[in-house]
Design goal:
heterodimer, A: alpha/beta, Rossmann fold, 2 domains, six-stranded mixed sheet, four-stranded parallel sheet, 15 helices, 10 strands, about 15% strand, globular, B: alpha+beta, Ubiquitin-like (UB roll), five-stranded mixed sheet, 3 helices
């Protein structure tokens, strides 16, 4: 099931949108909530689209942007689908909400449930990063750690949703949930001055974000808000869990699931991507690509991005930077293209993993001599 | 005789009119066929695509393990096995 809009009946112009509050509800005519009183809003969306000149210069590109969703209320893009899905749960009069999660959705749903005053049940794999668990728990959600993979947590959550009739955002509210993420595409266009980019690099977990972004561009084209030109959609996965990339490279028309994902990009550790088949179709349709990066490349890209552009990404976000570098080196990205990389979650989410790469903090006596001794050669 | 316990959820449970039932089948293919024969054409259409393959948005587990990691449709069933048929879920 999916939400369908009668775009012929929607009157929405650039001026109207531009005057509205800077959050995702500025596109409310294109979101599936009827009753505005049901909207649960923490200020999600309209995150910065940074022009990345230092990164671009180093890679030999002219127009490189990062869509920085690390600054959403719970520090990942998951606030977008959660805001829409929890609003819908409220509109439906749900008794409780919840989700299975690799961690980011947990915090996003928990925060929106708190704002809505709804009980919240979250199922996460037991190896979920500590900060993600900490954040979701602090919002007051009931957290259930499952001894297994995300796919196994998913299965249990589906059974729980069925048993108790609760509104689980990515299960029985899925058609509404996935609509929230398309606002990422709307914002990219608006922030580029109502222009479409040439290529967008998107992290792939289940593939739902990828398809939502595609749908967002299509709706803006249909409404005449952007020019009807091709936009290449590029998927990025971690090598330790890359079923979509592997299917793409092997020329398969469907994904072969992976039973035991193994990657530092835990937000992307989905071995059985529910939308994998449709992502492969969408890649073909948009002339896109799919590429993976190793854990080492992903972790290195966190520093590469942070040191050049001041953006602190989690591994699931920096994978787009690793893939960008690979594709530039392979000549798959033209220097003149307008490229947008989606950085979807904050580095604080995966602090444990990132910390492992940093050396111990050097402590000195509070004296100028001690500072001079450790300063080194740089200014 | 091999009797297996089938668990349904989501729209499949609604159309089937029950969440749990017992079937006689020695592998997944036979279990799905028996289930479709028992529950009628509407149910069959929701379970299988026009080519007769289980639909993409349905996940099938045998005692909690995805059947695609065992022997797909040829996965053998033992007496008392639990076959769960559950809609696939989006990312999280």
């Amino acid at each position: 099931m999916e939400v369908v809009y009668n775009l012929d009946d929607i009157r929405l112009d650039k001026e109207t949108i531009s005057k509205r509050e800077k959050n995702l509800w500025r596109y409310r005519e294109l979101l599936p909530i009827k009753d505005e009183d049901s909207i649960v809003d923490l200020g999600t969306g309209f995150t910065p689209l940074h022009r990345c000149r230092r990164l671009a210069d180093e890679l030999g590109l002219k127009n490189l942007y990062i869509k920085d969703d690390t600054v959403n209320p719970t520090n990942s893009f998951k606030d977008r689908p959660s805001s829409v899905a929890v609003s819908k749960a409220k509109e439906f009069g749900a008794e409780a909400v919840g989700c299975p999660s690799t961690g980011n959705l947990a915090a996003a749903v928990a925060a929106h449930a708190a704002k809505a005053g709804l009980p919240c049940y979250i199922f996460v794999p037991a190896n979920t990063e500590a900060n993600k668990v900490l954040q979701a728990s602090t919002y007051g959600a009931h957290l259930v750690a499952v001894d297994g993979t995300y796919d196994q947590a998913n299965r249990l959550a589906a059974q729980v949703a069925e048993e108790y009739g609760w509104a689980f955002v990515n299960i029985n509210l899925r058609p509404f949930y996935v609509e929230g993420s398309k606002t990422l595409a709307f914002e990219i266009c608006e922030q580029l001055g109502w222009e479409a980019p040439d290529s967008v690099i998107i992290p792939l977990g289940s593939g739902a974000l990828f398809l939502a972004i595609k749908r967002g561009f299509e709706q803006f084209k249909e409404l005449g808000l952007i020019e009807d030109k091709p936009i290449r959609l590029i998927g990025a996965q971690a090598s330790g869990c890359a079923p979509i990339v592997e299917a793409f490279k092997a020329g398969l028309d469907d994904v072969i699931p992976i039973e035991h994902p193994d990657t530092v990009a835990k937000s992307l550790a989905i071995g059985d991507p529910g939308d994998g088949y449709y992502v492969l179709e969408a890649i073909q349709e948009t002339g896109g690509l799919a590429e993976s990066a190793s854990d080492e490349e992903i972790l290195e890209a966190i520093n590469f991005l942070a040191e050049r552009e001041g953006i602190f990404s989690e591994p699931a976000g920096s994978v787009t930077i690793s893939v960008l570098r690979k594709l530039v080196e392979a000549g798959e990205i033209h220097p003149d293209e307008t490229v947008v990389c989606c950085v979807t979650g904050s580095g604080f989410k995966a602090a444990d993993t990132i910390q492992e790469r940093l050396g111990a903090l050097r402590v000195i006596e509070p004296s100028l001599e001690a500072f001079k001794a450790v300063k080194g050669g740089s200014a | 005789m091999v009797l297996v316990n089938v668990e349904l959820s989501g729209a499949l449970a609604t159309v089937a009119g029950e969440k749990r039932l017992t079937l006689e089948a020695t592998n997944i293919r036979l279990a799905l066929d028996a289930l479709a024969a028992k529950k009628g054409e509407d149910f069959r259409g929701r379970l299988f695509d026009p080519q007769g393959r289980p639909r993409r948005f349905i996940n099938i587990y045998v005692n909690g393990r995805d059947y695609r990691f065992i022997d797909r449709l040829d996965t053998k069933l033992q007496d008392g096995d639990v076959v769960s048929i559950i809609p696939a879920v989006s990312g999280g």
